[in-house]
Inverse folding.
């Protein structure tokens, strides 16, 4: 990876971290409602994988922990924040909220709030790509706990049966809400579970964005070549609770400290500094610039945007003026 | 106008829509090589190939979700769920994704899937193969629900459902695939909203849908013949949205209403139509509306018990006689 790309990735990941931390504050300030699932600690997963994908072609779909994936895939951070602020200018026009970020123009096919729900949707997107004989692929990010849903097995079976162009990325943060993986899952190493479907897989350090990028490049090459699905497990850790309503009391502080020493942003920063490509001052300046941007552009946009019109509450339930509802009569 | 069987009508609609648009696909258990449990896709596997007429594994939630995902990119999947009882397994994807994705994406995404499934009680299939689930589907915003009572509707509703940009659930009936009916020679698209007056009458409206339309028609004949009561029969082929205006207009003409449903009474079509009558035309009523429903029991295996649990035309005649005191 080129130095310029590494520095850009460092900035993107730091932006993602500060964005999510600002979401936390906005939630406490009650500017964000509902459920809020934050991504700090896991930034290298989304950034490393999507750096290896084709931004103008590939489709991305994920769960409710979706802000960072959407932004990396082209969504305007101001519109993502406006969505969290429930504004008409939000990516989903204030109808979706944190768990339902959609940016279809950028092929970000949404965040879904049922654990494991996107598995078959991703296979279906891949099926449509296959029907159109496209070279694109679908990339589906889900957590380790989603793999205990039936949709995991049903979708892997169909994806391999029909050799669909789909990459399943498992962000293994070791906890399904508050239950540690070894207490919920018979086979803890998730990449092994897909061998039953004859799907190639790999496990990689999800804290090192360069390693993630390398593993994802290999995975995406496999999928794009027409050989069918691939499963990539990334070992990672979320710093906060599952959602804002999670006190996070179930994890040992020593475990948290251990993972904080493997912070994806700090690791990349220190590597760039160590190699002489970045100074600590440059990093501090970058951070200040990001914080300013988030406050003066992202938060300002979200705060000042209008709410949806109450009179439009029934819009988007069904298609508008669809002639086939009347049997094709215009 | 030729007479064809219900399954042939569904097959013709599949065939024409597959021929019309290369992004139309059919998927479900045994729809391909076998040609469908009720022959609704017979021969299409050979004609259109395994990429578009897809035999799925027995994974209802998985393949329904896969169809929904494909529809995001312009595919027009017709998903057959072999029996409506199995649709319970796919409720997550139907309700949580297909019905809600347009709304929660602020109109960016839509899921133009058709989900067809035979419901109803056949003969002695037991509790887990006799569900009547239309009431469940029609209670969810964002989903259209239609239910054909004859081959013409089965054909025309499927044709329109494939082209409509909303997710449409088509509730068919296990006992009706061999029913014969008239079918136009030319291509025909049935509206997905509204209702049909299948027998005009002045004294009482019998509301039916799917198989219960036929019970209503039998009852109307008996009432006319034996009691001089002329019943109007309304076919509610669209269960969501329901035809409020059609319900109001008929009750305004007849001033009496009976709703006939094959399902249990709780939270059903009868309850919903009664609510609409209350809201739309309460002061037109000359008698309290009545519903004829199944008993509130799981469907038994024993033939006599099964028959007792279900309504029929005689039950409709009895409630109308009571209503008129004859």
């Amino acid at each position: 990876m080129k130095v310029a790309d590494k520095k850009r990735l460092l900035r993107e990941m730091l932006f993602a971290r500060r964005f999510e931390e600002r979401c936390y504050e906005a939630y406490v300030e009650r500017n964000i409602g509902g459920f809020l699932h934050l991504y700090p600690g896991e930034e290298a997963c989304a950034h490393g994988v999507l750096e290896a994908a084709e931004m103008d072609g590939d489709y991305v779909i994920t769960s409710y922990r979706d802000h960072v994936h959407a932004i990396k895939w082209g969504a305007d951070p101001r519109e993502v924040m406006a969505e969290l602020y429930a504004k008409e200018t939000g990516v989903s026009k204030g109808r979706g909220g944190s768990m339902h970020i959609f940016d279809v123009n950028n092929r970000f096919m949404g965040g879904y709030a049922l654990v494991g729900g996107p598995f078959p949707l991703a296979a279906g997107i891949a099926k449509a790509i296959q029907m159109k004989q496209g070279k694109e692929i679908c990339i589906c990010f889900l957590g380790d706990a989603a793999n205990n849903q039936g949709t995991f097995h049903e979708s892997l079976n169909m994806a391999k049966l029909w050799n669909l162009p789909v990459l399943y990325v498992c962000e293994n943060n070791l906890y399904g809400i508050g239950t540690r993986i070894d207490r919920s899952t018979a086979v803890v190493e998730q990449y092994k579970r897909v061998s039953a479907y004859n799907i190639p897989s790999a496990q990689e350090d999800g804290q090192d964005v360069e390693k993630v990028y390398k593993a994802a490049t290999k995975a995406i090459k496999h999928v794009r070549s027409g050989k069918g699905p691939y499963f990539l497990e990334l070992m990672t850790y979320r710093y906060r609770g599952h959602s804002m309503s999670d006190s996070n009391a179930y994890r040992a502080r020593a475990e948290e400290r251990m993972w904080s020493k493997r912070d994806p942003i700090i690791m990349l920063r220190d590597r760039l500094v160590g190699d002489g490509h970045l100074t600590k001052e440059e990093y501090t300046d970058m951070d200040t610039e990001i914080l300013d941007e988030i406050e003066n552009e992202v938060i300002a946009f979200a705060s000042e945007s209008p709410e949806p019109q109450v009179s439009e509450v029934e819009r988007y339930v069904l298609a508008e003026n669809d002639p086939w509802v009347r049997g094709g009569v215009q | 106008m030729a007479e064809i069987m219900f399954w042939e009508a569904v097959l013709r609609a599949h065939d024409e829509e597959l021929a019309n648009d290369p992004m139309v696909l059919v998927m479900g258990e045994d729809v391909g090589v076998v040609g469908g449990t009720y022959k609704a896709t017979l021969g299409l596997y050979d004609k259109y190939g395994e990429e578009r007429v897809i035999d799925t594994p027995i994974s209802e939630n998985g393949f329904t979700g896969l169809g929904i995902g494909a529809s995001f990119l312009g595919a027009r999947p017709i998903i057959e769920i072999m029996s409506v009882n199995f649709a319970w397994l796919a409720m997550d994807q139907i309700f949580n994704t297909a019905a809600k994705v347009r709304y929660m994406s602020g109109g960016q995404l839509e899921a133009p899937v058709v989900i067809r499934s035979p419901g109803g009680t056949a003969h002695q299939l037991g509790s887990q193969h006799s569900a009547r689930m239309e009431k469940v589907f029609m209670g969810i915003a964002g989903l259209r629900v239609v239910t054909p009572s004859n081959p013409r509707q089965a054909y025309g509703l499927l044709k329109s459902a494939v082209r409509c940009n909303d997710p449409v659930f088509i509730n068919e009936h296990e006992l009706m695939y061999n029913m014969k009916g008239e079918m136009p020679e030319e291509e025909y698209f049935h509206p997905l909203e509204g209702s049909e007056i299948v027998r005009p009458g002045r004294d009482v409206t019998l509301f039916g849908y799917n198989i219960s339309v036929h019970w209503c028609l039998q009852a109307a004949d008996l009432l006319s013949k034996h009691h001089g009561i002329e019943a109007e029969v309304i076919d509610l082929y669209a269960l969501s949205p329901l035809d409020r205006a059609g319900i109001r207009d008929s009750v305004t003409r007849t001033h009496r209403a009976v709703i006939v449903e094959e399902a249990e009474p709780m939270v059903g079509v009868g309850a919903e139509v009664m609510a609409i009558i209350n809201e739309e035309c309460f002061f037109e009523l000359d008698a309290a509306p009545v519903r004829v429903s199944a008993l509130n029991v799981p469907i038994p295996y024993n033939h006599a018990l099964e028959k007792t649990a279900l309504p029929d035309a005689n039950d409709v005649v009895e409630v109308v006689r009571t209503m008129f005191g004859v």
User: Anything to note?
Assistant: Residues 122 and 175 of chain B are 6 Å apart (CA to CA).
